[in-house]
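Subject: design request, 268 residues
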């Protein structure tokens, strides 16, 4: 399971405030805590006005790299911003994101083709997100074909079938699960990823929904997540589910997480 820490994101009010104030101590602390909690990557998203985004995202990426040994997940909807920041990073990480929207793959794939960068690819296009699983799977095949054109191996693709908020789409999980199962069936290399908290937007007690979605999505084949790694219950559920699905031989990852104090009752 690929765990991407979500906390260095300017859309989170306290983080956005820290980014605007250039509060390095706050952000460094957040980066370090996510690494200690077991993240594999740190998502960094500036969430500022477009004219300031490239400079701010580069500043945030450099700050995160100074605070942590983890590779980054560079997060922006603007391919020009991504192409400005990626070459400045110390370590190859994950590009977040591309899609079949005009200009995104054409800008990013040539940049990362001969590198170790992975990439999150959303199943949407200029027409938006298809309602059906079939429509999203058609876009997956188009993304897959484009990656092959640029020599990008499928194990570098993290496909996001896109989960709608449950409050507006009661079939959100069912559609996501159908996509995840089919993607994992068609490709032995491609990963399936989701931003977990999207499912609960607008609902009360959001962590309850997020926890349930994590378990069910993993059962359907999701093997990467952008998530709150500081939520100990969620991290515990992740390791338990991974073990129950037979992905953790002798439960060694689960046991290690417990011994390191990342899951279970917090020790004094």
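Subject: RE: design request

Done. Sequence follows.
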């Amino acid at each position: 399971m690929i765990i991407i820490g979500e906390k260095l994101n300017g859309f989170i009010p306290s983080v956005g405030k820290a980014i605007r104030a250039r509060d390095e101590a706050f952000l460094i602390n957040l980066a370090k805590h996510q690494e200690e909690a077991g993240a594999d990557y740190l998502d960094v998203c500036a969430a500022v006005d477009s004219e300031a985004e490239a400079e701010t995202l580069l500043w945030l990426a450099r700050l995160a790299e100074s605070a942590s040994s983890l590779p980054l997940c560079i997060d922006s909807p603007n391919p020009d911003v991504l192409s400005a920041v990626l070459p400045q990073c110390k370590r190859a990480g994950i590009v977040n994101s591309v899609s079949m929207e005009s200009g995104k793959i054409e800008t990013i794939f040539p940049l990362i083709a001969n590198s170790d960068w992975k990439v999150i690819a959303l199943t949407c296009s200029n027409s938006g997100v298809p309602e059906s699983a079939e429509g999203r799977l058609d876009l997956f095949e188009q993304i897959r074909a484009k990656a092959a054109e640029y020599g990008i191996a499928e194990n570098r693709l993290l496909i996001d079938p896109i989960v709608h908020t449950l409050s507006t789409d009661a079939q959100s999980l069912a559609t996501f699960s159908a996509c995840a199962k089919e993607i994992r069936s068609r490709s032995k290399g491609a990963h399936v990823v989701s931003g977990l908290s999207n499912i609960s937007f607008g609902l009360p007690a959001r962590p309850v929904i997020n926890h349930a979605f994590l378990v069910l999505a993993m059962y359907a084949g999701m093997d990467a997540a952008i998530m709150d790694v500081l939520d100990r219950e969620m991290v515990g559920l992740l390791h338990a589910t991974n073990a129950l699905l037979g992905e953790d031989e002798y439960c060694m990852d689960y046991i290690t997480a417990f011994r390191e104090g990342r899951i279970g009752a917090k020790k004094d």
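The longest strand covers residues 2-9.
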